[in-house]
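Design job #97: recover the sequence.
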């Protein structure tokens, strides 16, 4: 084999780890974007509320109350809301730092590296695609129930029943049409579609207010506490199981972070919208669940039409039509949220080179990635056409929880990484709000830059162990160790409770060991200086709040069934093919000075036949590369003029 081929092949095959771990550099102006920055705090707040308050409250509530938690569903929603709030706070800080589309994908790219960013982005695509399909399927099922199942029966009579285990019983053409129709509606422009979303969300909140007021007016407290009725009929374990299911109802808050590239003032709007929407949604879920379980004894709740049947039980038949209006509006806004986020995540990955370049195009008239929107609507529609709602929801959860876990870990890593603030300084414009808050804090001689990621004075006794570590590297290692042993602890909790209850020695010893290691990791993290100055919003009590978020998300993940994990691995295999065959070679964060690129753009590579480049020519190219001090453009221009 000619020597030039060997050199090129060696370069292509080497440095895989370096490529997988390269991080994204922010552009010269983080506020600059081809998208339309037109959304205010009100728009973004209602986008988040609309995405979260939909199928969950009208479809999920009845099932959880009847089969899992009973009246304790209010505690399930409270626990799920608090667990999601921990992750939401982490998203809000990143939305303040990095006002770009892509949500968790962009945050991971900047803090951890390209490979994990692709993993998260790939799963976010699946999350929103399945989220849109599942809501469309729920929307169709709710409309069908209002007409006595005529749509289902007609479809079955024409097409027959599908007997495949992974598919639904019949193809849902109405759900297919709903996805396509709402995708076209989003194509009119982000501001106009935001107005429609806001209107539907306000209608939904009004309906929920009516349900709460009327429900408490006709409430019967004996349904909670009486001699025969118990508040926690399934025990506290039922509350935890219900919380894991209710977690699905809150997954829409990441659409707030996704909208940061189209927000007028992201450093204010993103955290404010996150906190308000999470508070409003959690309160609404708790009050509606309380009204439902006070109206009807939990065993008598209808899992398919819980609220309409509950009000019919007390003679308030007119409320059924009000609830139906709210359900349609709520599921529509949830579908809007998924179809809003999905094309923007595709756009973010494509502009970084990890997905095909045509997905990074933005229509100049609408300032929207229209091609992505068409693809998103079509694929979501096909999934909604073929798959059952329950299977879609299970499959979606794992990608969401993985994204939440890595974002929480990224918050800790960036707080203790000194180079990030320096990057922020170079990545801001003098006139931007972000620059004004950080320009005085990130000068080359700043004490904060020198201290961030180093040991605090009071923890000097850790110096012999951690003193030689680069600033921030010990924290990164501690985060990895904490996450790994959190997984081990949560898996250990799946051991039959009888073993733990009767003190089987190995379970007690392992539990103690894992807790000690996790506590030690948090101690190592807290022993270092962090830098949170200059942020309009920051997660409180770092590293403890993000660490608790990591633990909660992993605990929910280990409750997923085996089949869900198998589906996840199949999806990841497809993603790995995309990344290693395309993304890793086309990444915009790739080494611009790679010898392979220089060889193939040099006059020698053009003029001479393949394999004819001599060792001397290659050496000359590499020598010119070194003398150019990293300016690839200068090398190419210099060679092309020779």
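Job complete. Output follows.
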């Amino acid at each position: 084999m000619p020597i030039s081929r060997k050199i090129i092949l060696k370069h292509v095959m080497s440095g895989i780890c370096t490529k997988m771990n390269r991080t994204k550099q922010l552009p010269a102006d983080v506020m600059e974007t081809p998208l339309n920055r037109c959304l205010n705090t009100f728009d973004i707040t209602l986008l988040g509320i609309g995405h979260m308050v939909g199928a969950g409250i009208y479809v999920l509530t009845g099932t959880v109350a009847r089969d899992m938690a009973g009246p304790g569903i209010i505690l399930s929603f409270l626990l799920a809301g608090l667990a999601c709030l921990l992750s939401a706070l982490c998203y809000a800080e990143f939305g303040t730092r990095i006002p770009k589309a892509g949500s968790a994908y962009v945050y991971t790219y900047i803090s951890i590296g390209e490979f994990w960013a692709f993993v998260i982005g790939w799963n976010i695509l699946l999350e929103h695609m399945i989220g849109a399909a599942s809501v469309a399927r729920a929307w169709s099922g709710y409309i069908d129930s209002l007409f006595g199942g005529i749509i289902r029966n007609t479809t079955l009579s024409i097409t027959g029943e599908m007997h495949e285990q992974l598919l639904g019983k019949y193809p849902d053409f109405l759900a297919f049409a709903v996805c396509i129709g709402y995708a076209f509606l989003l194509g009119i422009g982000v501001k106009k579609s935001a107005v429609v979303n806001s209107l539907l969300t306000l209608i939904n909140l009004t309906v929920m207010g009516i349900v709460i007021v009327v429900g408490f007016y006709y409430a019967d407290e004996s349904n909670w506490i009486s001699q025969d009725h118990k508040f926690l009929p399934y025990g506290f374990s039922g509350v935890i199981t219900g919380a894991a299911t209710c977690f699905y109802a809150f997954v829409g808050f990441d659409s707030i972070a996704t909208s940061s590239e189209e927000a007028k003032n992201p450093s204010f709007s993103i955290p404010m919208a996150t906190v308000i929407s999470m508070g409003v949604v959690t309160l609404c879920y708790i009050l509606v669940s309380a009204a439902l379980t006070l109206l009807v004894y939990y065993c008598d709740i209808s899992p398919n039409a819980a609220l309409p049947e509950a009000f019919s039980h007390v003679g308030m038949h007119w409320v059924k039509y009000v609830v139906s209006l709210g359900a349609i509006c709520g599921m529509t806004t949830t579908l809007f949220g998924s179809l809003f986020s999905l094309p923007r995540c595709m756009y973010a990955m494509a502009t970084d080179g990890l997905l095909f370049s045509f997905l990074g195009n933005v229509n100049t008239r609408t300032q929207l990635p229209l091609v992505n929107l068409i693809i998103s609507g079509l694929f979501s529609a096909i999934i909604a056409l073929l798959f059952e709602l329950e299977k879609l929801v299970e499959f979606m959860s794992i990608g969401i929880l993985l994204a939440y876990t890595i974002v929480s870990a990224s918050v800790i890593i960036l707080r203790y990484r000194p180079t990030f603030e320096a990057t922020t300084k170079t990545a801001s414009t003098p006139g931007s709000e972000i620059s004004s808050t950080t320009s005085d804090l990130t000068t080359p001689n700043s004490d904060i830059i020198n201290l961030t990621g180093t040991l605090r004075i009071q923890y000097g006794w850790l110096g012999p162990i951690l003193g030689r570590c680069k600033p921030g590297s010990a924290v990164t290692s501690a985060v990895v160790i904490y996450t790994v042993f959190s997984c081990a602890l949560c898996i250990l909790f799946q051991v039959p409770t009888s073993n733990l209850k009767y003190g089987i020695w190995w379970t007690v010893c392992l539990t103690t060991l894992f807790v000690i290691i996790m506590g030690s990791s948090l101690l190592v993290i807290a022993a270092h200086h962090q830098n949170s100055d200059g942020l309009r919003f920051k997660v409180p009590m770092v590293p403890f709040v993000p660490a608790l978020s990591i633990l909660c998300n992993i605990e929910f993940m280990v409750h997923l069934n085996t089949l869900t994990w198998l589906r996840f691995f199949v999806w990841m295999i497809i993603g790995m093919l995309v990344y290693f065959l395309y993304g890793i070679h086309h990444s915009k964060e790739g080494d611009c000075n790679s010898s392979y690129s220089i060889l193939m753009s040099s006059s020698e590579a053009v003029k001479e036949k393949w394999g004819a480049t001599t060792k001397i020519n290659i050496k000359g190219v590499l020598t010119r590369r070194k003398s150019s001090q990293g300016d690839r453009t200068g090398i190419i221009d210099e060679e092309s003029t020779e």
